[in-house]
Amino acid sequence: MPLPVSEIYRSIQGESTYAGWPCVFIRLAGCNLHCTWCDTPHARGEGEPLSIPEIIERVRAFYCRMVEITGGEPLIHEKTPDLVNALVDLGHAVLLETNGSLDISRVNPRCIRIVDFKCPSSGEAESNRFENIEAMFEHDEIKFVVADREDYEYARDIVQHLLGDLRLSNTIHLSPVFGKLDPAELASWILEDRLGVRLSLQLHKYIWHPDQRGV
Fold first, then answer.
1. How many domains in the chain?
2. Which CATH number does the domain housing residue 177 bear?
3. What is the pTM of this model?
4. pLDDT per position as a tens digit, 180-201
5. Which range marks the domain in which residue 177 is found?
6. Who contacts 193 (Cβ-Cβ below 8 Å, separation ≥6)?
């Protein structure tokens, strides 16, 4: 069964603790959510059907160790875990970015799973699957995309609960919605509350035009 691929390209990793590193992005088509501030609406198309060997052939042409599988929402596709397995078996450092609404436990733990928790402004906060916390390993990461003060307080309350769990030592990112929330304002809130999180900016949107594709 092929996977629907929106695009495959090499760029600079713009988010997560791996920001700044060269990375090949496999963007799968389709998503189960409709976030109000979605910055990849083009991924809602049908995509090009490619087998896992065909995807790997295109990835290997870039000669890049780091690979991110993203979307859309990659976990709506049954074969995505198989793609992860194939890539890690080849020695790639694999990141998977997911919107946090689906079960991540079926994804190979050798993959770095970046799990988004939706805030109120997204319109999808009710879709958060908090059971994913139990399936996370220490190298997995958590992300909140924040558009306003309400979003920040929602994220803060969850973070303070998560950080109270001593077994959870994952990196937690707060990322401002580009063009809607001044990063300096979000930084001031984080510092004021002494919140143990990482302020994460979408690096690629500062290097290139924020609407440019394939970067």
1. 1
2. 3.20.20.70
3. 0.93
4. 999 999 999 999 999 989 999 9
5. 3-207
6. 156
